[in-house]
Design goal:
- It contains five helices and no strands.
- It has 129 residues and is mainly α.
- Helix 1 runs antiparallel to helix 2, helix 3 runs antiparallel to helix 4 and helix 4 runs antiparallel to helix 5.
- The radius of gyration is 20 Å and the shape is elongated.
- The relative contact order is 0.08.
- It comes from Mesobacillus jeotgali.
- InterPro entries: Spore_III_AC/AD, Spore_III_AD.
- The chain crosses the membrane at residues 27-44, 65-86, 106-127.
Length: 129
């Protein structure tokens, strides 16, 4: 029941941040960043297991691992960009957060273009002509 641990830590950190925020807003922000990072590090083992499982499924399905790795990198970029944008929003910097999200989207699109190209070429080959 890791979710109970995560929500427990998150709620305690939230209450502490609300209490500390009135006296020391900088410490409240650092507490939130530390808590978010700790939760992320707590989940690293789960993320590793998911990646290993996807790689095994791809190997069994005889899918080219280059595409699977690219998709996993895209997923990683999305999560990292979201995590950084949320922390930036928590700091009250919504403009920077939106730029992080834009950067993540552009990187995802750039990484997805080779996969999209292969998909389009495959579809064109399947169409009788």
């Amino acid at each position: 029941m890791e979710i109970l641990q995560i929500t427990g830590v998150a709620l305690i950190a939230t209450f502490l941040a609300l209490i500390v925020k009135e006296q020391k807003p900088n410490f409240a922000f650092l507490l939130i960043v530390f808590t978010g990072s700790a939760i992320f590090l707590f989940l690293v083992d789960q993320i590793y297991q998911i990646i290993s499982m996807i790689q095994k499924l791809a190997a069994n399905a005889k899918v080219n691992l280059v595409y699977v790795e690219t998709i996993l990198k895209i997923i990683g970029i999305a999560y990292i960009a979201e995590f950084a944008a949320q922390i930036t929003k928590d700091a009250g910097q919504g403009a920077i957060a939106s730029k992080i999200e834009l950067g993540g989207k552009i990187l995802i699109l750039a990484m997805a273009i080779p996969i999209l190209t292969v998909m389009i070429e495959t579809i064109i080959r399947l169409i009788p002509g």
